[in-house]
Amino acid sequence: MNEHTPGLSTRCVHAGELADAHGSPHTPIYTTTTFKFANTADLLDVVDGRKPGSLYTRYGLNPTIFSLEAKLAALEGAEAAWSFCSGMAAEAALFLAHGRKGIVCIGDAYGGTMELLSTQLRELNIPTYFLAGNRLDGLKSFLDAGAGLVFFETPTNPTLEVLDIRRICDLAHERGVLVAVDNTFASPANQSPLELGADFVVHSATKYLGGHSDLTAGALMGSKHLLAAVWNWRKNLGSALAPETAAQLMRSIRTLTVRVERQNATAQAVAEAMASHPKVARVLYPGLPDFPGHETAKAQMKGYGGMLTLDLKGGYDDAVRTVDKLTLFAIAPSLGGVESLATMPVTTTHHGLSAEERARRGITDTMIRLSVGLEDAADLIADLEQALD
Ligand SMILES: *Cc1c(COP(=O)(O)O)cnc(C)c1O
Question: Rounded to the nearest 5 degrees, what angle is found at the Cα of 220, between the Cα atoms of 9 and 91?
Answer without folding.
Answer: 135
